[in-house]
Sequence to fold (173 residues):
Amino acid sequence: MGSGKSFKLVGMYYSLKMNTKVTVGVFKSEVDIRTNTTISTRAPLTLEINGTITDTSDISRENYDILLIDEVQFISPKQIENIRLHAQTHDVYCFGLLTDHTAVLFPGSKRLVELADNVIQINDFCIPCSICTHYRAILHKKRSFSESDVGAEYDHVCWKCFCEKDLIKNKNG
Ligand SMILES: [Zn+2]
Fold:
């Protein structure tokens, strides 16, 4: 998705593997169609995943000490609730986008924010302004996107740029 979250996940994975003896499982939503078996980042880093999360998968069967889950915005609210239960006995770190290209919370992200022990916002830079922004507004680059935003490409923009681009889009119909 072009954000820094996957990079954070990969960094966390290697830090855990190098500095601890815990077992770490890396998962993501099966809905992420960029690649079936890896997590990729803007930097030239990829990480093989240990499994995908579907609407029917049973996360409680995973025996890793720590789970790292990417693209959590594509995971259903029901599965987020199952992950919350799993987190009672295991450490679970979820990475993902909060909002879609219209600045509306993804259903899975919304449920995660409601249930998570802690939510950390990863700072990013507004690409047009090159300023650090806490606002994670995302702007769709492609016009032919699917409803679920799967496979979409995003820019990270501040609220000001988000509104300006939106106005341009509206002017052009
Ligand atoms: Zn901006």
